[in-house]
Every structure is written in structure tokens, then in C-alpha cells.
Specification:
The chain has 343 residues and is of the alpha+beta class. 42% of the residues lie in helices and 15% in strands. The protein has one domain. It contains 11 helices and 9 strands. The strands form 3 sheets. The chain has a 5-stranded antiparallel sheet with strand order 1-2-7-8-9. A two-stranded parallel ribbon has the order 3-6. A two-stranded antiparallel sheet has the order 4-5.
Length: 343
């Protein structure tokens, strides 16, 4: 069939060109999107690898060399251990109450990145498996001195006051009675509906927290320590909030040295708190809750630390939470990776 209308060929040509332009535009758009997506994936992979590599930086910070003597008296062994504890606290102290930021530059390190690093000690948290006897089906020392049931009642009341939510004690006790074995991870508490409602958005400590009074589940509890007490030198952020202790971020160099110099292997807190930790926490021993006083360890123990690392490259961010435990077989002690959480 032949068309005699003028301009038909021109109209058909424009239609074909229009279709071609549409196809080219779609191809170009998909190509650009693909390239941007691949660039994002590549950058994200670099961010994750750098975040994982930052664990080595944490291990370096925790490394404290000391000279091992072949023959030494018991007194010399105690003095050497006290010296090690002093040096360890001296190295870690600047990281306990603030987040350190490191800038990486392509001209020097080969990459442009920002790294935020926060170090805490698991010895400054409560061991979740130290409060309940799953064999006897009751709280440890229930009805006796150092009653762990009374401790948990106080603790969940304090948590309730900070979160403005009902106390979690009843739900916690019910779960313990139904459970037959120790916790393998603190995050198992989220299986309890009441805990999930309170802590689902505050599970791990936040690097750039906007609310200094916020508390975090894994910053209150741990399952990695081998003790049933808490080292008051190393209170985590959440425990300082629960005890109404101010963040000790404004100490001068002389004040820091005074605090660290008061470290002892063994201590009687009733007698020595006000001469040491009062300077750090601005809180008298008599003002501490009675339930917490029996929970404070009298032995300086700091062998398990948590490292929170956040790496930012471009628009990508990677955050990991790592638990490091001292390998006592090595002299000097090195810290091995126990757990890694990709947040």
C-alpha cells in the first residue's frame, strides 16, 4: 500500500529516532547506575576490611611489654603484676571515657578514611551467668548475704528509671526459670519480648551518641568474664549512667596520674574509694547503692576488653564490635579475638 500523504517519511523517521534515543537513554541510565552501584559495593568492601583491620590497632594499644624474671620472690611477683596493671590502665585510660578519631589520607596511608575507636573493658560489666543457678533453679545466694536476686531487682529498677519503661525483672526471672543452661551471648535476652521492646534499638554502644544518658544491653551485661564481680576502675558507660556517675572526661594530666597511681592489686573500697575513685567519678562511696558495694571486685582484674570501631569511607560506614581476651600463656600477654559482631 502506497502512502501519498506528504511528510509521512519524515514522521516515520522521527518516530524511529525517538525510539532509538529512548533505548540509548535507558542503556546509558542502566550503565551509570551499574557503575555507581559497583563503586558503592567496592567502597563498602574496603570500609568493612578496614574496620576489621582496626582490631589490630586495638591489640597494639592493649599490648604492655614487661620483663619476665626467671627467679623472683612472691613479693616481686606481686610488684611485677601491679606494675603491669598500672601500665595497662595507663595505656587504656585515654580510650575509656572518650572516642578517639583517626584520619587516614591517600597520600600517606593510601586511602582517604575516618576511623572512630572506642575501648571498654568487659570487666566493668556484669556477667549474665553469675546471677542464677540453673541447676538449683534459683538466684545465687538467694536469701543470704550477697543475694543476687536483690541485686537484679535493684538493677532492673535502675534500668527502668533510665529507660522510662516498666521493670524487666519479672520477665527476666520467668525466662531464667524456664531456661536450663547458661547464656551463650548477651543478645539472647532479646528473645524475651519485654527486653526486645526496650533494647532493640540500643543493643551496642553508639560511637556518636546524642544522648549521654542512654544505656545499652551489651554495655550492661557480658558473658565473657570469668568473675561474678565488676571492676569499678573500668565501669562501662551504661554502668556509670545507672550509678549516676559523671563521665570523667575533664581530668587534667596531674589528676589522671593521681588516679592511676592509686591502682593496687587488692583494695578495700570502703576505706580507699574516697582516696582514689572519688577523684575519677566525683562520687562518695557512701552514696553508692548498697546492692552494688558487694559487687565491686577487690582485685584489680583487666583481662577482657571490647573494641568498637567505626570506619567511614565516602558515603559508606562499617561498624564492628570485637571482644579481646588476654592470652595469659604469652609473656608479655597478648589479646586474642574472642567474638566479632558486624553492626
Amino acid at each position: 500500500m502506497q502512502h501519498n500523504q506528504r511528510g509521512y517519511i519524515l514522521f516515520l523517521l522521527f518516530c524511529i529516532l525517538s525510539v532509538c534515543m529512548t533505548l540509548i537513554s535507558l542503556y546509558f541510565s542502566k550503565s551509570v547506575t551499574y557503575q555507581n552501584l559497583m563503586h558503592l559495593f567496592t567502597t563498602k568492601e574496603k570500609t568493612s576490611k578496614l574496620a576489621l583491620s582496626s582490631v589490630a590497632l586495638g591489640q597494639t594499644i592493649l599490648y604492655v611489654p614487661f620483663k619476665e624474671e626467671k627467679q623472683k620472690t612472691a613479693k616481686q611477683s606481686t610488684e611485677q603484676e601491679e606494675g603491669y596493671n598500672y601500665k595497662l590502665l595507663e595505656k587504656v585510660f585515654p580510650y575509656l571515657y572518650t572516642t578517639k578519631t583517626y584520619k587516614l589520607f591517600k597520600e600517606i596511608e593510601g586511602i582517604d578514611a575516618t576511623m572512630h575507636l572506642n575501648i571498654n573493658s568487659e570487666n566493668g560489666k556484669l556477667n549474665l551467668n553469675s546471677v542464677y543457678d540453673f541447676h538449683e533453679k534459683k538466684f545465687i545466694n538467694e536469701g543470704q548475704q550477697d543475694d543476687k536476686k536483690k541485686l537484679c531487682q535493684w538493677l532492673f529498677t535502675a534500668i527502668s528509671q533510665k529507660t522510662k519503661q516498666p521493670s524487666l525483672f519479672d520477665a527476666f526471672e520467668k525466662h531464667l526459670k524456664e531456661r536450663s543452661h547458661d547464656f551463650n551471648d548477651v543478645t539472647e535476652l532479646l528473645y524475651i519480648n519485654e527486653f526486645s521492646e526496650v533494647f532493640q534499638h540500643s543493643l551496642f554502644f553508639e560511637i556518636n551518641k546524642k544522648n549521654d544518658e542512654k544505656i545499652y544491653l551489651t554495655d550492661i551485661f557480658t558473658i565473657c568474664t570469668e568473675q561474678d564481680r565488676i571492676n569499678p576502675w573500668l565501669f562501662s558507660h551504661s554502668w556509670r549512667v545507672l550509678l549516676d556517675i559523671k563521665e570523667p572526661t575533664s581530668l587534667s594530666q596531674d589528676e589522671q596520674k593521681k588516679v592511676i597511681d592509686s591502682v593496687k592489686k587488692q583494695v578495700n573500697w570502703e576505706k580507699e574509694w574516697d582516696n582514689s575513685l572519688k577523684v575519677l567519678y566525683q562520687k562518695d562511696y557512701k552514696d553508692l547503692p548498697q546492692e552494688i558495694k558487694s559487687l565491686l571486685t577487690t582485685d584489680f582484674e583487666a583481662n577482657i576488653f571490647s573494641l568498637l570501631s567505626q570506619v567511614i569511607i565516602g558515603e559508606t560506614t562499617s561498624t564492628i564490635f570485637t571482644i579481646l581476651k588476654a592470652n595469659a600463656k604469652n609473656k608479655p600477654a597478648t589479646f586474642d579475638i574472642v567474638r566479632v559482631y558486624q553492626l
